[in-house]
């Protein structure tokens, strides 16, 4: 793999695409800095070599012009703390200020550019815009795994201007290595745990995983589409009516391939979507009219936990319930603890997806699993077997 270990950055300016798309509260405090800390090893290696670092990123989804709430300026104090040195900031990612500040940058110094998505050219993958960005550095490094599934100017198009000077950062390399380990080098038994809101988001992944896993656990909101497809009464639980046939065919495929498919047998049900709702336990095929399933129930926890704890490779994408509300967090927490127990017993556990990472963090388990990916959509697409534009651009 073409990583930054192949070169020394002494006397060079590295232009690094990072994914600093971090959540901010209304006072611009960073509520989860995982994506920033994950990029530190790359930045520090280049600084240690004596190189200068120019960081570029997007933040949020601005509509194509500057908006203060999406300014990367808000990240400068925390990034300076993390690096133990003052980070310079340019009010624009191209133009005179960016050029002058990059030129003036000495080895060991760090410059952060303003949000790339303040230009609509970024998401359009505009070649002229990519070329302007490319002028700022001598070497291009892509460490933005979370954005690697986007064919944008800074993530993919820019690479053509560095035919002999484009590399993966350590975060990219680590993410790809771990995803590969699960997808093509899994020690058995291999269990995938899928959850979250919608089946439709994860169909392709489920289909592909049926060729790889020994067990597939399906929980969360998507489980009710399976329950209804099998003739169950699901009240007003989340359902995708147009995916009922697909759910049945996935059950059939699992059977044909000898995959142990586990669906919840019971649920924590509620009379409305709120932490103040009245709750009860119900069989998954017998949920009262007007009630909805918002977490897996106690019997399902026991069944799922057994399989998780006996696994040697685990891929977890999507929470088991509405873990953001205390009344519906038990299923996700129990599965998280089972993943940790399996990991302590030698399993490799990979957690992916923004909400799954948030759930693991909420229960304080981040340090106790093998790897929490910084990618949501990017990891899913990689696992589905798609070529990520950000990866392809470096490799070709
Ligand atoms: N039974 C359920 N009913 C409604 N929403 C659910 C249910 N179970 C989980 N969810 C919601 O699904 C969301 C996460 O789904 P998703 O985006 O697919 O996960 P990820 O970001 O980990 O890939 C969470 O906000 C969670 O509250
Ligand atoms: O947060 C991100 O992806 P994710 O929501 O899939 O985790 C990335 O920064 C990509 O952002 P985008 O989905 O606006 O292109």
From TrEMBL:
Pathway: Carbohydrate degradation; glycolysis; pyruvate from D-glyceraldehyde 3-phosphate: step 2/5. It comes from the Bacteria. GO terms for cellular component: cytosol. Substrate binds at residues 19-21, 35, 58-61, 117, 150. Signal peptide: none annotated. One of its GO terms (biological process) is gluconeogenesis. GO terms for molecular function: ADP binding; ATP binding; phosphoglycerate kinase activity. (2R)-3-phosphoglycerate binds at residues 35, 117, 150. Keywords: ATP-binding, Cytoplasm, Glycolysis, Kinase, Nucleotide-binding, Transferase. It catalyses: (2R)-3-phosphoglycerate + ATP = (2R)-3-phospho-glyceroyl phosphate + ADP. SUPFAM superfamilies: Phosphoglycerate kinase. It is found in: Cytoplasm. It holds the Pfam family PGK. PANTHER family: PHOSPHOGLYCERATE KINASE (PTHR11406), PHOSPHOGLYCERATE KINASE 1, CHLOROPLASTIC-RELATED (PTHR11406:SF23). Monomer. Belongs to the phosphoglycerate kinase family. This is Phosphoglycerate kinase. The gene is pgk.
């Amino acid at each position: 793999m073409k990583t930054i270990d192949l070169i020394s950055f002494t006397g060079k300016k590295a232009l690094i695409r990072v994914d600093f798309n971090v959540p901010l509260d209304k006072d611009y405090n960073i509520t989860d800095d995982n994506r920033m800390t994950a990029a530190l090893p790359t930045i520090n290696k280049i600084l240690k070599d004596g190189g200068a670092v120019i960081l570029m990123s997007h933040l949020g989804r601005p509509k194509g012009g500057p908006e203060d709430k999406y300014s990367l300026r808000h990240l400068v104090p925390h990034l300076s703390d993390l690096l133990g040195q003052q980070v310079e900031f340019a009010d624009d990612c191209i133009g005179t200020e960016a050029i002058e500040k990059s030129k003036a940058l000495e080895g060991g110094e760090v410059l952060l550019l303003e949000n790339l998505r303040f230009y609509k050219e970024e998401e359009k993958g505009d070649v002229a815009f990519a070329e302007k960005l490319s002028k700022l550095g001598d070497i291009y490094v892509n460490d933005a795994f979370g954005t690697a599934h986007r064919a944008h100017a800074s993530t993919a198009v820019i690479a053509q201007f560095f035919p002999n000077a484009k590399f993966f950062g350590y975060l990219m390399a680590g993410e790809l290595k771990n995803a590969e380990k699960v997808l093509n080098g899994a020690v058995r038994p291999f269990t995938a745990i899928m959850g979250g809101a919608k089946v439709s988001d994860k169909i392709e992944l489920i289909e592909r995983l049926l060729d790889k896993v020994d067990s597939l656990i399906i929980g969360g909101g998507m489980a009710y589409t399976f329950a209804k497809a099998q003739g169950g009464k699901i009240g007003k639980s989340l359902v995708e009516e147009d995916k009922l046939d697909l759910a049945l065919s996935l059950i059939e495929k699992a059977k044909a391939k000898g995959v142990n498919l586990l669906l919840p047998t019971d649920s924590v049900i509620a009379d409305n979507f709120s932490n103040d709702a009245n709750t009860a336990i119900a069989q998954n095929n017998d949920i009262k009219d007007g009630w909805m399933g918002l977490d897996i129930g106690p019997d399902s926890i026991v069944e799922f936990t057994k399989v998780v704890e006996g696994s040697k490779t685990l891929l977890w994408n999507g929470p088991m319930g509405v873990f953001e509300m205390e009344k519906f967090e038990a299923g996700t927490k129990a599965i998280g603890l089972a993943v940790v127990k399996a990991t302590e017993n030698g399993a490799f556990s990979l957690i992916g997806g923004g909400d799954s990472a948030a759930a693991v963090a909420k229960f304080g388990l981040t340090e106790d699993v093998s790897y929490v990916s910084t990618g949501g959509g990017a990891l899913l697409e990689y696992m589905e077997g798609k070529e990520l534009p950000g990866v392809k651009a470096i490799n070709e």
